[in-house]
Amino acid sequence: MALRFPETATTARQRLAFLLRLKKRVEMLHNLIGLWHREGLSRAEWDDGVEESRVGGVGATRVRFPPSIRARFAYQPRITRAQFANMIGREFDGRMTEVLTAMAALEDQFHLDASWDGDIDLDRITEDV
Amino acid sequence: MFEKVGAYNLGGADQADITRTSYRGTFFSLENQDEAWLAKDFGSGRFGGDLNIQFTIYVSAISSTAQPFIAVLADDGGVTVPGENPDAWTDIDAAGAYALGCQLFGLAGWRPRIVELHGGTVYNSATISGCSLSTAYYARLVRSQNASTATLYIYSDAARTNLVGSAALTLHSIRAYDWAYAIQSYHAGSTQAANGYIENFDLGMDDYPIERGTPRGVARGMALGVA
Could you say which of A38, A45, B80, B167 has the lowest number of CB atoms within 10 Å? Predict the structure, then answer.
């Protein structure tokens, strides 16, 4: 499994913004699998997805399984706990690891970036006690 | 296997801020400045390698800058003799210890994050948003030895099928910890306080009956086939 950035994500800031949204989408993929186990999915929901507000998002964008998952798993109205655990292991864990690894690498890059040092004044932060 | 935190040791000058029943440790008016913990010594190097820790967390009130700790594993770091002297977070920090656990913040409801204490240096993950007060959440803290990462997952259901959010931290060491703290106070700052509880604290002990390594529960879950 490998992560590819969009061609338009060239700066560290753009890539971080992309990764934050991608992480949210991976979390919603987890929750779509969870919804399939807990409540089941209709054939229409399997084909067209569900509103992201049902799987941890806030908008009306529909979230559906990517083609690779739809090719590997046949539709059924509801999956068992064992099937849920299997899908999380096969489809969620690897994707989340890739995203988190990329985020950590980017974070390390930011940590080492001293370009802001001239603007840093530690007294801009005061403890509210 | 849920930890019987009711049998854990209460300690610190402000230990009255923590109460315990069989599987629940409750903190009430636990202030940043307080010294209190609910902990158990499992013996030298008990928690090594991959870790899979689960617990329920409930926060009913928290000041914006309160920062109590829960589900912390720590070693003596050459600071104490195993079996002796657990302490509050800032005190093990000052003593140069090693630890891995969760810290709670009173931001927009409340937010948890991963904290690592590495020989007296603190490293934090980003915080996880989306947690409301007076709502139970179900957490999983996973340490991967191979990847040198720790990941905290927060779910809204006990079956852990609905993920609220996650955060990860690249670790600076893979320590074998001795102590498990269900609750640990910050012991710095002033009166910023938090109320809540941790329950069904599962250290994955039944996943490590013979030797430390990959939790068997993970392998079992991934081995199940899809019809």
Answer: A38
For residue B162, the distance in angstroms to the closest alpha carbon of chain A comes to 5
User: Across the interface, which of B151, B159, B163 has its CB nearest the CB of A56?
Assistant: B163
Tokens of B220: 């079992």
User: How many A×B Cβ pairs under 8 Å?
Assistant: 75
Letter string b/e over residues B95-125, b meaning 16 or more CB atoms within 10 A of that residue's CB: bebbbbbbbbbbeeebbbbbbbbbeeeeeeb
Are the C-beta atoms of residues B181 and B72 closer than 8 Å to each other?
yes
Give me the number of domains chain B comprises: 1
Q: Which of A119, A77, A38, A15 is nearest to B157 (CA)?
A: A38
Rounded-to-integer distance, Cα B178 and Cα B77, Å: 10
- What range does the domain containing B151 cover? 5-224
ipTM of the complex: 0.83
For residue A10, the distance in angstroms to the closest alpha carbon of chain B comes to: 23
Distance CA B227, CA B225 (A): 6
- Of chain A residues 102-121, which have a CB less than 8 A from chain B? 103-104, 107-108
Domain at B132, CATH number:
2.60.120.200
Q: How many CB atoms lie within 10 A of CB B214?
A: 15
For residues A107 and B164, which has the higher predicted lDDT (pLDDT)?
A: B164
- pLDDT of B208 higher than 70: no
